[in-house]
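testing teh design pipeline on a random one, pls ignore if ur not involved
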């Protein structure tokens, strides 16, 4: 099968994009920081927090050194120690680990295949008198159409709703930003995310008391008088990391527009192709497209398809979200079955999608994928 031309493009799983202007702007900010001698929790961190607040509807923001730290801080502030937190079976280990490090036990719930988030029925079955918080994860940047139902369940059961929004910067549902549906949310700025600070995260909340507690916990439990009033940790963001965030955040609108354009192209080219089920999202223009997720027919072997794309076309698919249900990892070894999460892990693929991806590259991916499905 001839793919576009004789030229075989190199399609990596991810690209981190900083152009020359970005690098110059970051260098200027870092230079300013170095000259001032203020290298952590200074004016750049505050500027980044303020800029980020605008993107999420002017909620309170607290910059930290990772989204994992952000989740743990949120859970500590909510007082989950000695209680139970419900986590979706399809998530990164950090989601559950944050609850454990905050002193809670973890109970896993199954997901729905449409949006890969918590399934309301499974959530209801698992809430108990010990449950104090529920974490919903916006996989690939998709906010579930059931977010309102899940929020209502949490309110009815008097438990906190927390959002793992690591992948969802720029995602909205009914004009409301990810990270603002519950008590608080945590975003990630790891290099593969929508924007990056190298390492870093952001807590978002409309709860002033939670925000104040987060400020204390991220700085070894010290209050404004430098007195330790809680058992915190060094979860601070440096000025160097904040400089990257300030510059990259200015590109967010452009990054989202490119990704949504590529996603629209994938949708148009692959919607009717046999062997593939595309993700049902509530609105193309409201998703971050951290990942472009599709499900293969059960008869197609995912590993074989990925190997074919790599060897034949030098296309590396983006990393899975996630290759194995979290409760089945060795660190947890939960013996319970989670049928929908297990099915999703077996069958899903993530197509390359970057903030500077060209239409030519996307067309190459589409034609190569069609060939791979036919031959897998």
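output:
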């Amino acid at each position: 099968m001839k793919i576009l031309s004789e030229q075989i493009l190199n399609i990596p799983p991810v690209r981190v994009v900083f152009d020359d202007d970005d690098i110059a702007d970051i260098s200027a900010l870092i230079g300013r920081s170095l000259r001032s001698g203020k290298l952590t929790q200074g004016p750049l961190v505050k500027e980044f927090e303020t800029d980020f607040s605008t993107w999420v509807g002017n909620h309170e923001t607290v910059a930290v050194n990772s989204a994992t730290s952000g989740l743990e801080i949120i859970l500590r502030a909510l007082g989950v120690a000695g209680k139970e937190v419900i986590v979706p079976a399809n998530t990164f280990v950090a989601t559950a680990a944050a609850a454990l490090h905050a002193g809670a036990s973890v109970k896993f719930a199954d997901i729905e295949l449409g949006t890969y988030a918590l399934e309301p029925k499974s959530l209801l079955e698992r809430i108990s008198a010990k449950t104090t918080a529920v974490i919903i994860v916006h996989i690939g940047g998709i906010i579930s159409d059931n977010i309102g139902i899940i929020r209502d369940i949490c309110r009815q059961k008097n438990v906190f709703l927390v959002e793992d929004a690591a992948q969802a910067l720029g995602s909205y549902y009914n004009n409301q930003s990810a990270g603002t549906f519950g008590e608080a949310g945590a975003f990630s700025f790891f290099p593969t995310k929508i924007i990056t600070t190298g390492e870093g995260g952001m807590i978002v909340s409309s709860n002033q008391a939670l925000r104040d507690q987060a400020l204390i916990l991220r700085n070894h439990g010290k209050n404004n008088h430098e007195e330790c009033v809680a058992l915190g940790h060094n979860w601070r963001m440096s000025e160097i990391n904040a400089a990257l965030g300030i510059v990259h955040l200015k590109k967010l609108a452009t990054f989202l527009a490119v990704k949504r354009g590529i996603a629209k192209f994938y949708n148009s080219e692959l919607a009717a192709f046999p062997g593939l089920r595309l993700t049902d999202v509530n609105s193309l223009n409201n998703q971050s497209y951290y990942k472009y997720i599709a499900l293969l027919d059960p008869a197609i072997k995912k590993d074989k398809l990925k190997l074919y794309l790599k060897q034949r076309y030098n296309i590396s698919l983006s990393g899975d979200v996630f290759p194995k249900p979290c409760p089945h990892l060795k660190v947890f070894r939960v013996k319970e079955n989670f049928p929908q999460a297990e099915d999703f892990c077996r069958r899903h693929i993530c197509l390359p999608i970057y903030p500077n991806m060209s239409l030519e590259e996307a067309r190459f991916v589409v034609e190569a994928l069609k060939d791979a499905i036919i031959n897998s």
